[in-house]
Design a protein that fits this description.
The protein is α/β, with parallel strands linked by helices. The chain is built from 16 helices and 15 strands. The N terminus is likely disordered. Bound molecules: pyridoxal-5'-phosphate.
Length: about 450
C-alpha cells in the first residue's frame, strides 16, 4: 500500500477516528464487523446507501393527452390561428405577475429576440455571467456583439455585482444577469449600475420559473425576462420559451421580431414587412403541454423549497460541504438544480471527480457544475472571425483576452456539485439518503482520497 503523507490536521482526525474504532471493537466486537462492512463506500465494494430509483422527469398527466389529440384533429397546429398559444401567454403572464408574455420556440430564441428588440447591435458589448448554460452568450455572438464576462461570486453562484462597473466600456449597451439554478441575482444592485450607465437589462430566467427576489418573481426586474421550457426544465414542453415584460411597446416589437418582422400592435404596417425579424414562434402542441404542466408547478415549487431547506440544514453540518448563499433573506430559488461546493481539502484532498463517483455509486446521482466556459473554443472562433476583426479594433480584443481572468468563477467551476430538480421532488427519507451518503463518504474520506479507479 502507498504510504500516506498526512497534514497535522489530517493526522489528528485520523488518530481520533482510529481511537473511536478501537473503543467500539473492545465494547461490541461482533457488531463492529458488520457495522464496518455496512460503512464501506459502495465505490470500494460496500453496500449502496440507496438502491431505490429517483423520480423521473418529466412527469406526464394522461388526461392532458385528450386536448392534444383534439388540437391535432383541427389542423390548427401553428401560431397563425393558435388559440392555445394565446391562452398560454395569458396564463403565464398571470403566473409571473407580468403584464405581457410572448411565447417563443425556445429560451435561446427568447434571449435573441430580446437582444434585438432592445437594440443590441453589431459591435456592441454585452456584460454576461460566465457561470451559465452556453446559450446565454451564444446569443450575444449571434448579434455580432462581444460578451464581456463579469466574475462570479462563488458563495452565491451568481454574478458578483461589485465587479460589474469595471467591465463597462463606451460600447457596452446591455447586461444579462443569469438566475442560475433558479437562484435569484441581486437585481437591485444590478439595476443600480445599469441605470447609471444606461444599460438594457435582459434577465436570463431560463432556470428560474417562480423564483422570487424581494417579494417579486424574477423576470420582472429587467427590461425583459426570458424563460426556457426545454424538456429538462421545471416547466417542460420538449422545447419552448417565453419573454415577459410590462412594456407594451417593447412586447409588440418582440412579437413582430419573433414573427418574421410582420407588423404587430404598435409596430405599424408601413409595408408588408416593416422591420427585420425571424421565425421564433411556438407551436400549439407546446402550449397545450405547458398548460398541463403548469397545473403542478406551484406545488412542485413548494416541495423543492421544503426539501432544499432541509438539505441546507443537514449538509452545512458536514465539513467541506458549502451550501449556497442567497443574496437576500427574501430570495426564493426555483431549484432547477440544487448546488453546493465541495471543498476537497476538507476531504483529505479527495478529487471532486472521486467524490462525485463515490456519491453516484451510493445511488445518489450528481454532477459537476459548469466548466470555465469563458475559455471554450467558441470564444477564439468568434474573436478571430472575419466579422469580429472588422467590428472590433485589435487593441480591444487584445485587452479582452487579458481581462478574461475570472478567479471567482474558476474556483466555483472546480468546486460545484449539483443534484437535479426532480430529486428534490422526493420525500424527506430521500433527502436523508443524500445526507447519509455524503456523511458516509466524509467518514471514509481517507480511503476514498487514496482511491485510484
Ligand atoms: C436552458 C437555458 C437556456 C436556453 O434555453 P433553451 O430553451 O434550451 O434554448 C438559456 N439560459 C439558461 C441559463 C438555460 O438554462
Amino acid at each position: 500500500m502507498k504510504k500516506l503523507k498526512l497534514t497535522r490536521r489530517q493526522a489528528l482526525t485520523a488518530v481520533s477516528a482510529g481511537a473511536v474504532g478501537s473503543f467500539l471493537k473492545w465494547s461490541f466486537p461482533s457488531f463492529t464487523i458488520a457495522r464496518s462492512e455496512q460503512d464501506k463506500p459502495a465505490l470500494l465494494g460496500g453496500p449502496k446507501v440507496r438502491t431505490a430509483p429517483w423520480p423521473s422527469w418529466p412527469i406526464w398527466d394522461r388526461e392532458a393527452e385528450n386536448s392534444i389529440i383534439e388540437m391535432l384533429r383541427t389542423g390548427r397546429w401553428w401560431r397563425g390561428n393558435g388559440e392555445h398559444i394565446v391562452e398560454f401567454e395569458k396564463k403565464y403572464a398571470e403566473l409571473m405577475g407580468a403584464k405581457r408574455c410572448l411565447a417563443t420556440a425556445s429560451g435561446t430564441t427568447a434571449l435573441m429576440v430580446s437582444l434585438q428588440a432592445l437594440g443590441v447591435d453589431a459591435g456592441d458589448e454585452v456584460l454576461v455571467s460566465p457561470f451559465t448554460f452556453i446559450a446565454t452568450y451564444n446569443v450575444v455572438f449571434y448579434q455580432k456583439a462581444l460578451p464581456v464576462f463579469v466574475d462570479t461570486d462563488p458563495e452565491t453562484f451568481l454574478i458578483d455585482p461589485s465587479k460589474i462597473e469595471s467591465r463597462i466600456t463606451e460600447r457596452t449597451t446591455a447586461i444579462i444577469p443569469v438566475h442560475i439554478y433558479g437562484l435569484p441575482v441581486d437585481m437591485d444592485r444590478v439595476n443600480e449600475v445599469a441605470r447609471k450607465h444606461n444599460l438594457k437589462v435582459i434577465e436570463d430566467a431560463c432556470q428560474a420559473w417562480l423564483a422570487e427576489y424581494k417579494g417579486k418573481k424574477v423576470g420582472n426586474f429587467g427590461h425583459t425576462g426570458c424563460f426556457s421550457f426545454q424538456n429538462s426544465k421545471n416547466l417542460p414542453a420538449g422545447e419552448g420559451g417565453a419573454i415577459i415584460s410590462d412594456n407594451d411597446e417593447l412586447m409588440d416589437l418582440c412579437h413582430s421580431i419573433h414573427n418574421c418582422g410582420r407588423p404587430y400592435g404598435s409596430v405599424k404596417r408601413t409595408s408588408n414587412y416593416p422591420i427585420n425579424g425571424g421565425n421564433n414562434r411556438m407551436q400549439q402542441i407546446q402550449a397545450l403541454i405547458l398548460m398541463s404542466q403548469m397545473k403542478r408547478i406551484l406545488r412542485d415549487f413548494e416541495i423543492r423549497i421544503e426539501n432544499a431547506k432541509y438539505l441546507d440544514s443537514k449538509l452545512k453540518e458536514i465539513p467541506g460541504i458549502k451550501t449556497y448563499k442567497l443574496v437576500h433573506e427574501s430570495a426564493k430559488s426555483a431549484y432547477h438544480l440544487y448546488p453546493f461546493r465541495f471543498i476537497s481539502q476538507e476531504f483529505n484532498n479527495m478529487p471532486r471527480e472521486t467524490f462525485i463517483r463515490a456519491l453516484n455509486a451510493e445511488g445518489i446521482p450528481c454532477m459537476p457544475g459548469y466548466g470555465p466556459q469563458n475559455k471554450d473554443g467558441l470564444i477564439e472562433q468568434m474573436l478571430t472571425s472575419r466579422g469580429f476583426k472588422r467590428l472590433f479594433p485589435e487593441s480591444r480584443l487584445k485587452q479582452w483576452r487579458e481581462e478574461n481572468v475570472l478567479p471567482g468563477n474558476d474556483q466555483l467551476c472546480r468546486e460545484a456539485v449539483i443534484f437535479s430538480q426532480s430529486m428534490l421532488l422526493g420525500t424527506r427519507n430521500d433527502m436523508d439518503d443524500i445526507v447519509n451518503a455524503i456523511t458516509k463518504i466524509y467518514k471514509n474520506r481517507q480511503a476514498l482520497a487514496e482511491y485510484k479507479g
